[in-house]
Specification:
single chain; mainly alpha
Length: about 60
């Protein structure tokens, strides 16, 4: 369900790093500690919020 958020409170960030540097792990913690998710998904379990595509979950990598 979408909710209206005041534009002044919106922040867009980008995370860039080498392969296997922990970008998805960092993103999962950001989502959790900012209250956007209620669990920290683990990449190796295929449970990361960022890895929502079936291929990402099967291969254990983040594509999007």
């Amino acid at each position: 369900m979408a909710r209206d958020v005041e534009l002044a409170r919106v922040r867009n960030i980008g995370i860039m790093a080498h392969i296997d540097a922990g970008k998805t792990t960092t993103s999962e913690r950001i989502l959790y500690f900012t209250g956007r998710t209620h669990r920290i998904g683990e990449v190796h379990d295929g449970a990361a919020t960022m890895d929502w595509m079936a291929e990402e979950q099967e291969r254990g990598i983040t594509i999007t």
